[in-house]
Amino acid sequence: MSELVGAATHELRGALAPVAGADWSVPAGDVEWSCRRTAAHVADDLFSYASQVLARPAAGYLPVEAVVEDRGSNAEVLDVVVMCGDLLRLAVDAAPREARAWHPCGVSDADGFAAMGALETLVHGYDIAQGIGVGWLPPDELCAPVIARLFPDAPAGRPAEVLLYCTGRLPLGDRPRLTEWAWDSTVRDEA
After folding, report:
1. What are the pLDDT digits (tens) for 137-161?
2. Which domains can be identified in the chain, with CATH numbers?
């Protein structure tokens, strides 16, 4: 699952690099943060997930975060996202199968943290694209494994639309947009 994180961060950079010169101080879709703050949030999530995988705390997040400096350009912020994604990918690859760490949506394994990192990247990438006015959906082939790992009871449909539905971004068919949602990051039985 680690390769999913790298694919997601590279996809995000590829989708948003052409508009790195745009005004990223605008809101990221329906998110209260700016596009730039949302991208920094993605980088911090990826960094924090890598920290969880490596340190394996049983309760709470480690008291550390990645901070994107104001002096960086939007293109550099995208590079930070990719770099933090690489940190998570490397942490997942280095973790033993039995490694577990705390997350508020359920104690997870390394693959679960990889899926959560990919989700944050793809969903917030969509938010940023919406804020800047770019018509971009996360690729179905990246969304499908995220849905399978984090939303085991998700409805059927096109993976990008299902992921955005499960995270409260869009309605899905006759299903209204969710106002409350959570993923399930608990470890899956490997039967």
Report:
1. 999 999 999 999 999 999 999 999 9
2. 2-166 (1.20.120.450)
